[in-house]
Write a structure and sequence with these properties.
By secondary structure, this protein is an all-alpha fold. The chain has one domain (2-226). The protein has nine helices and no strands. The protein has helices at 2-24, 29-44, 47-56, 62-85, 89-96, 98-118, 134-163, 168-186, 198-239. The protein is globular, with a radius of gyration of 20 Å.
Length: 243
């Protein structure tokens, strides 16, 4: 499945580069940082880059702990961006309010504690152990609880956008993002999957990323088209001030 990993990395990198001009001009910098975090997360999930980074950090799987926090940061920023794009003000408050930030803090604390107690000293991508041991299983579960929470918060907003009339591109964006969050919820089974089903784990993980990328790209395209229509309307109105 190495081709899927590198193909996903290529897609995310392309999207990151398309956001660079706007970032340099000070526009929509949140999207640029989103794609940067996602690109880093994908790279750290591939064996070659992961082992190279982990060697620099001492070779004790610290790269995996960094990966988990990169994902935490990504899903939080993504949640805020999606909530704002689809006018999900209650969802944004849930993410940035006491409960949402409290869950993030608690998940982070348990994540670090379970990482230390796992004592997996051999550097290996995926933080896998030969058998399903307690603390590595807790560590893997905690890595997915907070991301799943952000999906639960956002799914009602996305489902509402798909159902109600509106710009088709924005509705399609909501549909792809919603499917990505459903896939993210399904990824919770990865912790208990046997090592023989690694292909299924990777398929779930990378399909989640690709669905979210498509959704974000459609949000951006819809925004660009909306601004272009607005400029055309204003230009036509200025040419015909008496209409």
């Amino acid at each position: 499945m190495i081709w899927l990993q590198w193909a996903t990395c290529a897609v995310v990198t392309i999207l990151l580069l398309t956001r660079l001009p706007a970032f340099l001009h000070g526009h929509n910098r949140l999207m640029f940082w989103l794609m940067t975090l996602l690109d880093l997360a994908v790279l750290l999930s591939i064996e070659g880059p992961y082992l190279a980074v982990d060697r620099l950090l001492g070779g004790h799987n610290m790269a995996n702990l960094i990966l988990r926090f990169v994902i935490y940061g990504f899903v939080l920023l993504l949640g805020v961006r999606v909530a704002r794009a689809f006018s999900g003000y209650r969802a944004e408050r849930a993410l940035l309010g006491p409960f949402g930030l409290g869950l993030l803090a608690a998940s982070s604390a348990v994540l670090v504690a379970s990482f230390v107690l796992s004592d997996v000293t051999t550097s290996r991508v995926g933080f896998n152990t030969p058998d399903l041991e307690l603390w590595p299983a807790v560590y893997g579960t905690m890595g997915r609880i907070y991301p799943t929470f952000t999906g639960i918060v956002l799914l009602p907003v996305l489902a509402s956008t798909v159902r109600r009339p509106g710009p088709p591109l924005l509705r399609w964006a909501a549909a792809f993002l919603g499917l990505g969050y459903v896939d993210l919820a399904v990824s919770n089974i990865i912790t208990v999957l046997p090592k023989e089903d690694l292909w299924l784990s990777q398929s779930i993980n990378y399909s989640t990323i690709l669905l979210i990328c498509v959704g974000l790209a459609l949000v951006w395209v819809s925004s660009v088209l909306g601004k272009a229509r607005s400029r055309n309307f204003v230009g036509a109105d200025e040419k015909n001030p008496h209409t």
